[in-house]
């Protein structure tokens, strides 16, 4: 009887993996990757994302992509082959994805890197959502 009660009670919660299915994309991260810290703001008609990437060569270690309204910054930092007593630096892959607001012109996105900070500017145009009349078919 007690075993039957435990068995029935265990099924009132969804499977653990299902809990994360509806998580925002920004909170999901591949295993083994570190999250890049960012600041998001709007300045002069542009959506601006600043990412902390100290000690990285942006020309060879950073990739920025835009797909389906999502901006993704991916960076790699390789560990130097030196004898160390202790290291608290993070090495490996760093990734961060940010959903862009409506009206961003993906073709005009630009990026700069200065003193360890990557700045990505995405110009935001006017969002026009014109009302549209829907015709009804069928019926008498």
Automatic annotation (TrEMBL):
- Which CDD domains does its entry note? ACD_sHsps-like
Task: State the similarity comment.
Answer: Belongs to the small heat shock protein (HSP20) family.
SUPFAM superfamilies in the cross-refs: HSP20-like chaperones
* Signal peptide feature range: none
Mind telling me which Pfam families this protein's record contains?
HSP20 (PF00011)
Entries under InterPro entries matching the protein: A-crystallin/Hsp20_dom, HSP20-like_chaperone, Small_HSP
According to the entry, every stretch annotated as the SHSP domain falls at: 29-139
Instruction: Say which species the protein is native to.
Output: Kitasatospora griseola (Streptomyces griseolosporeus)
Q: What is this protein called?
A: SHSP domain-containing protein
